[in-house]
């Protein structure tokens, strides 16, 4: 067993973990990143669709972009289509493997050290530091640090052991890559028979390839297979047999995202859009806040839970209300019938309501609570009163 020491150990080399490592290494701290896979982003179950704002902030380089998205089509349970279109790209579909590698390369360029195929099996806090027990290529090693950041996704074992609690509510995301015909913009499919409590998607990655996936409370793989069967019958995809990957997606915030010498970021902290299951943007925001708090704590040599609690206060002030409103909207949607979803589509399609909201100047690919509240609170408009009635009243029928 060896014993190597760092200022900060980051568990997980996803976009959040690597961005945090980049920021801390740029500030002169010795950083080690441990990733259990043999390469960052390997076998990630992620569509990789991120806003242009998120892309600019991450700054991974344009080579990671597969395609841009300035429009999308939304389908009701009956197949009714509602199309949204903007003048400029609102999002990019990025190659998740290339994105993770690019973020890791940025961190390494500032001096962060990466340990791949290295699984952290235990975290042991102490008075003067914290130990990480790691299995590296079959050998068990021990590394020490002044602080540890968990950025390892929704894997609650370490958080639970450290007394931080666990996220109890989650969905399951399932996705595969397919050969597709006539898909030049993202497509989103609603309906409780399509994806129970959520939605399915078909997102182009190139001229003839696309990501097909869905979120579901249970049975995600089976529901995705039914979605693929339907696309195959329509002649949209050439084959319905494909490797399906799954991952848990948190739809709640962690009880605590800090402790003595410990911070938690990204999916592990519940920094995920409850409406879509996307975690790259909010995980990035959480990592940026964590880097600021941890940099100051390292400089002052105060890594107590009391000092690091500022991280949770800051990130919840930044995105907590957005997450809470998204959780409410998701729960309300899960209680709707297909008939009620059809009713909402009918209302949105009437009176140019979608164009009004889209061109309001406040539309955001990442921040959805304004759109939700705009629909529910503008009760002076008769059609919106009907939507509010559908969500708040009929959902309980």
Observed structural traits:
397 residues; alpha/beta; FAD/NAD(P)-binding domain; D-Amino Acid Oxidase, Chain A, domain 2; 3 domains; 8-stranded mixed β-sheet; 36% helix
Total helical elements: 11
> Which H/E pattern describes the elements?
EHEEHEEEEHEEEEHEEEEHEEEHHHHHH
Q: Uncertain segments of ≥5 residues (pLDDT<50)?
A: 377-384
The overall pLDDT average reads 88
If you compute it from the alpha carbons, what radius of gyration comes out, rounded to the nearest whole angstrom?
Answer: 22 Å
Largest sheet: 8 strands, mixed
How many strands in all?
A: 18
| Second-tier CATH architecture of the largest domain | 3-Layer(bba) Sandwich
CATH topology annotation of the largest domain: FAD/NAD(P)-binding domain
The CATH superfamily of the largest domain bears the name FAD/NAD(P)-binding domain
- Beta-strand share of residues: 25-35%
Helix fraction, binned, reads 25-40%
User: What gross morphology would you assign?
Assistant: globular
Number of domains: 3
The computed structural class is alpha/beta
Tell me the distance between the termini. 62 Å
| CATH class division of the largest domain | Alpha Beta
Task: Note down, in words, how this protein is organized.
With about 400 residues, this protein is of the alpha/beta class. It folds into three domains: about 5-40 and about 95-165 and about 255-320, FAD/NAD(P)-binding domain (3-Layer(bba) Sandwich); about 65-95 and about 170-250, D-Amino Acid Oxidase, Chain A, domain 2; about 335-395, no CATH class. Helices cover about 35% and strands about 25% of the residues. The protein contains eleven helices and 18 strands. The protein has helices spanning about 15-25, 50-60, 95-110, 155-160, 220-235, 280-300, 305-335, 340-350, 355-360, 370-375, 380-390, and strands at about 5-10, 30-35, 50, 65-70, 70-75, 80-85, 90-95, 115, 120-125, 130-135, 140-150, 170-180, 185-190, 200-205, 210-215, 245-250, 260, 260-265. Strands 1, 2, 8, 9, 10, 11, 17 and 18 form an eight-stranded mixed sheet that branches. A seven-stranded mixed sheet has the order 6-5-13-14-15-12-16, with helices on both faces. Strand 10 (about 130-135) and strand 11 form a beta hairpin. Helix 1 (about 15-25) runs parallel beside helix 6 and helix 8 (about 340-350) runs antiparallel to helix 11. It is globular and about 65 Å long. The protein starts with a strand and ends in a 5-residue tail after the last helix. The model is unreliable at about 375-385 (pLDDT under 50).
């Amino acid at each position: 067993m060896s014993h190597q020491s760092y200022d900060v150990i980051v568990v997980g080399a996803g976009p959040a973990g690597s961005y945090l490592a980049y920021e801390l290494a740029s500030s002169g701290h010795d950083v080690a990143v441990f990733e259990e896979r043999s390469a960052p982003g390997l076998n990630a179950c992620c569509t990789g669709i991120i806003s242009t704002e998120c892309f600019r902030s991450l700054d991974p380089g344009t080579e990671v972009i597969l395609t841009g998205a300035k429009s999308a089509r939304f389908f009701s349970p009956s197949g009714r289509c509602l199309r949204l279109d903007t003048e400029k790209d609102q999002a990019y579909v990025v190659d998740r493997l290339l994105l993770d590698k690019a973020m890791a390369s940025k961190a390494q360029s500032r001096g962060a050290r990466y340990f791949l195929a290295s699984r952290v099996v235990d975290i042991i806090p102490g008075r003067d530091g914290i130990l990480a027990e790691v299995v590296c290529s079959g050998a068990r090693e021990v590394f020490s640090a002044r602080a540890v950041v968990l950025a390892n996704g929704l894997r609650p074992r370490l958080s639970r052991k450290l007394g931080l609690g666990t996220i109890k509510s989650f969905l399951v995301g399932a996705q595969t890559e397919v050969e597709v015909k006539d898909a030049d913009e993202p497509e989103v499919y609603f309906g409780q028979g399509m994806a129970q409590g959520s939605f399915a998607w078909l997102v182009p990655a190139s001229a003839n390839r696309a990501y097909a996936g869905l979120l579901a409370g249970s049975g995600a793989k089976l529901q995705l297979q039914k979605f693929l069967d339907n696309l195959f019958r329509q002649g949209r995809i050439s084959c319905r047999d494909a490797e399906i990957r799954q991952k848990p997606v948190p739809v709640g915030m962690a009880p605590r995202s800090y402790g003595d010498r410990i911070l938690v970021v990204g999916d592990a902290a519940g920094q995920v859009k409850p409406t879509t299951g996307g975690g790259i943007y909010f995980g990035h925001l959480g990592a940026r806040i964590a880097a600021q708090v941890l940099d100051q704590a390292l400089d002052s040599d105060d890594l107590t839970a009391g000092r690091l609690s500022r991280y949770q206060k800051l990130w919840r002030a930044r995105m907590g209300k957005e997450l809470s409103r998204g959780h409410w909207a998701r729960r309300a949607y899960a209680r709707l019938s297909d008939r009620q979803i059809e009713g909402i589509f009918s209302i949105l399609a009437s009176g140019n309501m979608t164009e009004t909201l889209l061109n309001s100047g406040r539309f955001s690919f990442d921040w959805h609570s304004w759109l939700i509240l705009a629909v529910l609170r503008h009760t002076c408009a008769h059609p919106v009163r009907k939507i509010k009635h559908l969500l708040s009243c009929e959902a309980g029928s």
